[in-house]
Amino acid sequence: MAALSVQNESGVFVGCASPIYLASQVDMRKGAKLIFEVLEADASILKQMVRQVATFGLGTDQPPFVAEVTSVVGCASTASGLEMLRDRPTVRCVLTIHGAINLQQQH
Question: What residue ranges do the domains of the chain occupy?
Fold first, then answer.
């Protein structure tokens, strides 16, 4: 389980989907896909961002990264963390990674 945030116009990271349940390994190489499930009710911002590129954060142990919201589609959840909520609509989201941001080089 993790939380996904997006950088707004002011440069501040704000929550956009939480909690998310990863369905793929975290790979920040260009072209990699980050796939996760989230309750549909918690994905309204992501649904508006399909085909948009933005800077995202995935908790405090990962550097920010740039990615395109490739798809947000309804699914039958397979995430164990959503097991007790199978009656609630769930979406599977795919982000296509453009690359991690090296915070050390920005200073």
Answer: 2-106
User: What amino acid occupies position 79?
Assistant: A
- What type of residue sits at position 33? K
Residue pointed to by tokens 């989201």: 93
- Determine the Cα–Cα distance for residues 81 and 100; give it in Å rounded to an integer: 27
pTM of the predicted model as reported, rounded to 2 decimal places:
0.90
Distance, CA of 85 to CA of 77 (rounded, Å): 9
Q: Which two tokens stand for residue 67?
A: 């990615």
Structure-block tokens of residue 84 = 């007790």
Return per-residue pLDDT of the chain as tens, 107 residues. 899 999 999 999 999 999 999 999 999 999 999 999 999 999 999 999 999 999 999 988 889 999 999 999 999 888 887 777 888 899 999 999 999 987 665 54
**Amino acid letter, 89:** P
Alpha-helix residue ranges (DSSP H) falling in 1-107: 44-48
Length of the chain: 107
